[in-house]
Write a structure and sequence with these properties.
By secondary structure, this protein is of the alpha/beta class. It has 26 helices and twelve strands. The longest helix has 26 residues.
């Protein structure tokens, strides 16, 4: 039996590695046509809606929304143009100060260029300023922003003019071009829109066959409303469709560094960034068109405005929903502590199940298209709370005191299906970063992974519980199968594409399977489990690295940076993100709560709850499941840029499931047969 399990384990790991390393099909690239980039800070889709001239361009263009997230907290024009310059998120503005004017080009050099270079080192951006011009010597530019975009590593600028020159743009000496059309003004916006449309027409007429990219490159002011901006590409090669790139993998969505990748066409030179970092790959990918042909400009504009609503509201509403659930739970807990009646007990359990149901409701809510409803923010609030309650009701009806199981199982299956389908439920959900934050455009984020991990481990524990009396080996294999499926879906490029997730989940699944199989674990076994997980994750990353750079996911990109010596700035930025949680008391409170919950899984006899101690010792799968949850949370906290937030989210899902089960089961065990005669007064 032991040899059978070990052989099965290695076969499963090999299969997981093979699936995770599956290929992502390449997309058609824009070709070798001349690329003319017309950048307009603050160009929004409501500008297109308000302008007949810009609206007329929609049916003549591939369209999308532009994420202008850069390295700093705001995206001023200087941040946007520096990002295009480097092909990576750069930091140009000073936090707390107005955006100000762009630096002028004086005697062929951007004024105070060294300050912007030093700013990249100060903030560990790793942005190699100068990459665009150094890699594309025949590129020309017009306007102040183009001067910044075309600055070389030393700040010098060639092929640039302060004013737009149609004759030079059409000249053979101008290979590609960057045009700064100026920011959208607060007043006189109608005239500015007309001029932008006219500039696009002039550029198209001057260079027939050229790719003309009209893009919003930044916000116009430091305190401007942050939302995805306009992106159009004219003329379309095969009907007007939707812009995308391999860096976002979402139809209708591109990011700012994609512009640089499109101009360079895979010919980026390695440029040493400021500080100790080594030259790294482009952040973006070449822009291309995908999806169905669109022919109704009004419908396209409405779709883009709806998309902005979809991305704007989830995070603020998440706070409102969280506070609502917390207040309701505290009220129900107070009632239960004071009265100890059946009704108060049932109410408290139901509120706990509602919180657990929230972790599937956040994804199910995207099916309702709430962003098209009246008052989208309030609609989302009601939809998520309603779905959370519905999940709790259904779970209670199906499984009574074991309602935790259908909630965990449902979340697990929902996310498996979502991952296999390419994560459509993540777009615009409360657990997705969105294009304004720009943390992740596809795959599973940290919050989604936390929900998947809890659902997978609790489901695996239940399956093992059903099998352990028959065979410990079968029970362990069930854990490996259920956990392995979660690892595959979470990590496979094109599905979850979550590098950090499989690092945390793999050792947790292996530990749980070992405990189910052997009932105890030695230090030697722990080391073996850790090494096995490390080998599996490393194999996946290495195989992904073997692909062409444009086809690599986060796994291969990390290996490339590691081999190039460019991983230090990445790790420093991730560490800074993790430690940022401790800049306020809430982060320390989360850490304390997480550590207490983890301690309860290791030292159950110290927990002041007889129900918990009995559950831990009497249920054979309680200990393996709880220790696996703690392991996943601990590894994720140490190695993930989310830091303590990751195990805190896991706790926010797992703890209500556990407490609801304990409180409901205690009622069954302690209430007398005659208690049904006692009615709540």
């Amino acid at each position: 039996m032991r040899r059978t399990l070990i052989r099965t384990l290695f076969a499963l790991l090999a299969a997981v590695t093979a699936v995770l390393a599956g290929t992502v099909p390449a997309n058609a690239q824009p070709g070798d046509a001349k690329v003319i980039v017309i950048g307009v800070p603050g160009l929004r889709w409501y500008d297109v809606e308000a302008s007949p001239e810009l609206t007329a361009l929609v049916n003549q263009a591939n369209v999308g929304s532009m994420s202008v997230k850069t390295a700093g907290p705001h995206t001023c024009p200087i941040d946007g143009w520096l990002t295009i310059n480097a092909g990576a998120r750069a930091w140009g503005s000073v936090p707390g100060k107005p955006c100000g004017e762009l630096p002028p080009v004086v005697d062929g050099k951007v004024q105070n260029w060294s300050e912007y270079v030093d700013r990249q080192a100060e903030h560990h951006t790793g942005a190699p300023l100068g990459r665009l011009a150094e890699s594309r010597p025949r590129i020309c530019g017009f306007g102040p922003g183009a001067g910044v975009a075309l600055a070389r590593t030393d700040g010098t600028v060639t092929g640039w003019q302060s004013e737009f020159d149609l004759g030079k743009l059409a000249s053979p000496n101008c290979g590609d071009a960057i045009v700064d059309a100026g920011p959208m003004p607060l007043r006189g916006r109608d005239e500015a829109r007309r001029q932008v449309a006219e500039l696009v027409t002039q550029a198209r007429n001057s260079s027939p066959g050229a790719w003309v990219l009209l893009v919003g490159v930044s916000e116009e002011l430091e305190n401007a409303h942050q939302e995805p901006l306009v992106a159009m590409q004219l003329p379309p090669e095969d009907g007007a469709r939707w812009l995308t790139s391999d860096s976002t993998r979402r139809p209708g969505l591109i990011q700012l560094s994609d512009v640089t990748a499109t101009v360079l066409r895979g010919e980026a030179k390695p440029i040493d960034p400021a500080g100790p970092a080594q030259p790294g790959p482009l952040d973006g990918s070449e822009i291309h068109a995908t999806g169905d042909v669109h022919t109704d400009a009004a419908a396209v504009i409405e779709d883009r405005l709806d998309a902005n609503e979809r991305f704007e509201h989830p995070r603020p509403v998440l706070v409102a929903v969280g506070i609502t659930l917390l207040v309701v739970q505290l009220g129900a807990l107070a009632w239960f502590v004071i009265r100890r009646s059946p009704r108060s007990r049932s109410t408290f359990v139901f509120t706990l199940l509602c919180q657990a149901g929230f972790f599937s409701a956040v994804f199910l809510s995207t099916v309702t298209s709430w962003w098209r409803w009246p008052e989208p923010a309030f609609s989302l609030y009601c939809v998520v709370l309603g779905l959370s309650a519905l999940v709790a009701v259904l779970a209670k009806l199906v499984a009574k005191n074991y309602a935790f199981l259908p909630i965990a199982l449902g979340t697990y299956l929902l996310l498996l299906v979502d991952g296999v389908l390419g994560t459509p439920l993540q777009v615009g959900s409360m657990f997705a970063d969105g294009p304004v934050i720009g943390g992740r455009f596809y795959g599973f984020g940290n919050s989604t992974f936390a929900a998947l991990a809890v659902g997978a481990l609790v489901t695996a524990g239940w399956a093992a519980h059903k099998l352990i009396d028959r065979s410990r080996t079968q029970a362990a294999l069930a854990v490996l199968a259920i956990g392995g499926a979660a690892i595959v879906v979470d990590g496979k490029p094109g599905w979850g594409t979550d590098f950090g997730g499989i690092i945390a989940l793999t050792p947790a699944v292996l530990l749980m399977a070992w405990l189910v199989w052997r009932d105890r674990v030695s230090w030697r076994a722990l080391v073996g489990i850790g090494l096995t997980g490390l080998v599996a994750v490393s194999a996946v990353a290495w195989l992904d690295y073997q692909r062409p750079p444009a086809e690599r996911s986060h796994f291969g990109a990390f290996v490339a940076r590691l081999l190039d010596g460019d991983v230090s700035d990445v790790l420093i930025r991730k560490l800074d993100m993790a430690l940022a949680m401790f800049q306020n008391p809430g982060g320390w409170g989360m850490l304390l709560g997480v550590l207490l919950c983890m301690a309860a899984t290791v030292l159950p006899d110290r927990v002041p709850s007889a129900a918990y101690r009995a559950f831990y010792h009497e249920q054979p799968l309680a200990r393996p499941t709880l220790l696996a949850l703690s392991t996943c949370g601990l590894v994720g906290m140490v190695l993930n840029d989310a830091g303590v937030a990751l195990p805190a989210i896991m706790t926010g899902f797992a703890l209500p499931l556990l407490v609801a089960h304990l409180v409901a089961s205690e009622r069954t065990a302690t209430v007398s047969p005659e208690s049904h005669l006692v009615q709540e007064q």
